[in-house]
Structures are given as structure tokens and as C-alpha cells.
Design brief:
The protein has 162 residues and is mainly α. The protein has one domain: Tetracycline Repressor, domain 2. The chain is built from eight helices and no strands. α3 runs parallel beside α6 and α4 runs antiparallel to α8. The chain is elongated, with a radius of gyration of 18 Å. The chain starts with a helix and ends in a 5-residue tail after the last helix.
Length: 162
């Protein structure tokens, strides 16, 4: 906390006047990210537009900077804040609890989580790897993994891609 306040050039007392804890500040960051990202993907269909959604995630994430990367990619303590962001994005984009591809609730939940976590995992690995692969190629790899995995799952369940 001391280091953060020094970098921001604010007194700790000033920080605590606005935030009870560091998690409150991080939650505020995530709220801003969630709103902006939800607006970017609004109107896209979770299954039919999956490639567009994955590319939007990579492009949006790459534009946000170091604080976003730290919250999004760090293991451990930021997980609950990251999950809250995902839930806010889903709610605002109108996809939360939406049954996917005509599947029953459990199968839809499995697909929904796969489609949410897979591109994010690829993004995290891309950042952890020092962004050695160009952004567009990393996004293409995430699209291939996500969409081909989704297609196999839909085929196995007898559902259609739309």
C-alpha cells in the first residue's frame, strides 16, 4: 500500500478516505473495464460470433495497459475481482445465464465456461510469455482453439452452432 500511495503521490490517509482496502480500488478499475468491454461486444452472439468475441477480447485487453494485465493475468488474489468483472460483462452484454445452442442448463453451463475461460487463458499465457507472438496471431490461435473445441462439443451433444 505504501508503494502504491508513493507512486500515486497521495497520502495513505487520503487513499483510505476513498477506499477501505486495495481490493476496493481494484474493483473500481474492473468496473470501468467491464463497462467498456461490454459495450464493445454488445449485440454479438456467444456461439455464432465466438471468433469476433475472442478477437475483441484480445484487442480490448491489449489496449488497456499494465494495471489491466496485472489484474487479469495474476494468479491468486485477483481471482475474485476478475470473476466479478466477467459476471458484469456477461450481464451487461446480455449473455449471462443465456442457454447456449439449445443445450440444457448443465451442458450450456459447461460450454459457457469453456468459451469464457479458454480465450482468457490464452491471453494470460500470451502475456506471461512476453508477447513474443504478434497479437493478431495470438488471437487467431485462441479463436482456433475456442471455436474448434466448441464445434466438437456441439457435435458431441447433438447441438448446432446456429
Amino acid at each position: 500500500m505504501t508503494g502504491l500511495c508513493e507512486r500515486a503521490r497521495v497520502n495513505k490517509k487520503t487513499f483510505y478516505r476513498y477506499y477501505e482496502a486495495l481490493d476496493d480500488l481494484l474493483a473500481e478499475f474492473q468496473e470501468g473495464y467491464a463497462s467498456a468491454y461490454a459495450e464493445r461486444i454488445r449485440g454479438l452472439d456467444t456461439v455464432r460470433d465466438q471468433a469476433k468475441l475472442v478477437r475483441a477480447l484480445f484487442e480490448f485487453s491489449a489496449e488497456q495497459g499494465a494495471a489491466y494485465e496485472r489484474i487479469t493475468c495474476a494468479a491468486g488474489g485477483y481471482g475474485s475481482i476478475r470473476q466479478q468483472m466477467i459476471e458484469r460483462v456477461e450481464e451487461r452484454a446480455g449473455v449471462r445465464n443465456e442457454p447456449l445452442a439449445g443445450l440444457d442448463a448443465q451442458r450450456s453451463d459447461v460450454l459457457h465456461r469453456f468459451l469464457g475461460e479458454t480465450p482468457l487463458m490464452v491471453y494470460r499465457l500470451w502475456v506471461e510469455g512476453g508477447k513474443q507472438i504478434p497479437l493478431t496471431e495470438a488471437a487467431d490461435l485462441a479463436v482456433a482453439l475456442t471455436c474448434k473445441g466448441m464445434d466438437g462439443y456441439l457435435e458431441a451433444t447433438g447441438a448446432r452452432r446456429g
